[in-house]
Amino acid sequence: MSSDGQDRTEKATPQRMKDVIRKGRLGRSQDLSAWLGLGAAALMLPAVLTRAQGAAEHQLATVRDIARNPSTDGALSALGEGLTSLLGTLAPLFAGVVVVALTVGIAQGGWRPRRFRIVLDHLKPKSAVQRLVGPQAWWQGAKTLLKSAVVGLVLYVAIQSMIPLVLASGRLPIGELLAQAGSGTTNLLRLGIAAGLVLAAADVFVVLRRNRKQTRMTRREIKEEHKRTEGDPLVKGQIRSRQMAMSRNRMLAEVANADVVLVNPTHVAVALRYEPGTGAPRVVAKGAGAVAAKLRAVAAEHRVPMVEDVPLARALHATCELGQEIPAHLFTAVATVLAFVMALRRKGAAAGRHRLATGPTLSPDDPIDHRAAARAARRPARAGTTTATSGRTP
């Protein structure tokens, strides 16, 4: 176990942090929620005390009226009115504290109902002992002592300042007494919250540090997570290889139905098929290197005529994708080749390799960058396309 802990040197991945938060295992600073809740109470306290002062004065007036004219119904009505007034006065205060505390808790790690479930592992004696003597237990103990000292100091200072008020309470009107008591209580809360927030900041630092330590991962865990989320690279490579092989097989099968295969004569091969009434001829297969050799072999096997035209073959390979019609600027050159092939078919001599008697259909004067086309023909195909330019399987 110790060696495993020492091996956890890698920062937690985003996926690991999501899992930790989802399972409710991310530590939170309870002190921060508590002290900010008290801060909300301190902010709301003046308004609450003002409302309480008005309610108390009204209630005292009601009690005096009942004392002059005693009646059971009047007493019960005054009691109910007093309880309702008390609840209406304190409810906003408690609601504000709860909302702030919950908001801070959710901000630290989200709302996770799993945190409220009973974890049986926590009931084991070994886990209980670790919580009592571990580093976290020492920090909790130190926090308790610090909070006790802070609370004691704040109470001492506040009580010292409120002693004159306590001594004079019998001579002060109820309104003034409540106002001074509220002022003293507000000062007490301000001092306590200021000290508590300092402790909460230290607690947040410790919690964040503990979270980083507990969520660290080993290199093996990162690799396994990558396999689960992104897939095994070896398996993905095998799938990609099979897909490309299937794509090549489908492409080679189209060569048997081609009207002509333009060759380079050894580096590039492009198979064309023309169906009357469907527009321009389409590229049904193309390839470079070993794939071009395979195209030539399939064409020879199915007696598909092959025409050597280096500029045209390179231009078609560089500018056309599989299934795409040839571009308009190559119509004339391709039409010349197809007419040549049709003439050979009429003579019964279409099979095999041929050259145009007039030479290449494209010349250096044509608006085709033959060098760029040749470079494009030698570039390997992009992963995931159906065009193969090499006989090697990735």
UniProtKB/TrEMBL annotation:
Presence of the UniProt keyword rRNA-binding in the record: no
Keyword Transmembrane helix: yes
Matching InterPro entries: T3SS_substrate_exporter (IPR006135), T3SS_substrate_exporter_C (IPR029025)
GO cellular component: plasma membrane
Pfam families in the cross-refs: Bac_export_2
Annotated spans, Disordered: 352-394
GO BP term, pick one: protein secretion
Keywords from the UniProt entry: Cell projection, Cilium, Flagellum, Membrane, Transmembrane, Transmembrane helix
Matches recorded under Gene3D superfamilies: secretion proteins EscU (3.40.1690.10)
Low complexity bias locations: 382-394
Transmembrane segments: 32-49, 86-107, 149-168, 188-208
Identification of the protein by name: Flagellar biosynthesis protein FlhB
Protein source organism: Cellulomonas gelida
